[in-house]
Amino acid sequence: MSNKLFRWGKKATGCMLVVGSDIQQLSQSFAETNLIDALHVYHVVNDLNQEKIHIEKLHNQLTVVRINLIDSHALKKLLSHITSSKHQIELCIFQAYFSHAREMDTLLSQEAEHEWNNNGLSAVSLSQVMIREMLMRQSGTMIFLGSQPQSSAYYDPLSQSSFAAIRALSQSLAREFHPKGIHVCYCMLERWQGNREDFVNSVKKACLHLHQQPNSTWSQELSLGI
User: Fold this and answer.
1) Nearest alpha carbon to residue 219 among 124, 119, 159, 144
2) Which band of pLDDT confidence, cut at 50, 70 and 90, is reported for residue 97?
3) Which of 21, 53, 60, 65 is least enclosed, having the fewest CB within 10 Å?
4) What is the pLDDT of residues 49-58, one digit of tens each?
């Protein structure tokens, strides 16, 4: 009985979500940093083929989640798990899908739909849920990692349009929710290099800097020259 009372009375602690498709090293880097700050990391892999949400706690600082972000029922289950684990969301980082340049005339309609679902639609679905949770405390940070407008050499028009849509979403959310205590920022990268330690560390430091900014100096966009 005393153990149950302890769990019920336990105060919620902060957590962060790192969401995307190539985020393993970034999540691990955050988990190692947060050994000091005690901010639990949810490594959330966006997989449109995932029929049921899969959650596995690897250790005290890191939980791995596989989820289809456009499945609203799965998102509700994720939030329920976070709440039952006595965590509250302080920071969410969404990594857009950085595909390589492709020939547009050979791109199938199914591939185009998958690209949009994996990027734009997933970003909308996730941000709606995250910001709704943050509004309860009028506090939190939502960061989108995407490409720079001038990165046309690396990405085809479809990918560029997906990034542009996420950037527009970020700008719209920032205008609406900055006055309500939610920091929303779009971070521009030339390309994604998730296997490079120096790149991952730079992205991590930038995200932590944005999260820790006082609201009088909040940035809506940040260009990372890495």
Assistant:
1) 144
2) confident
3) 60
4) 898 999 999 8
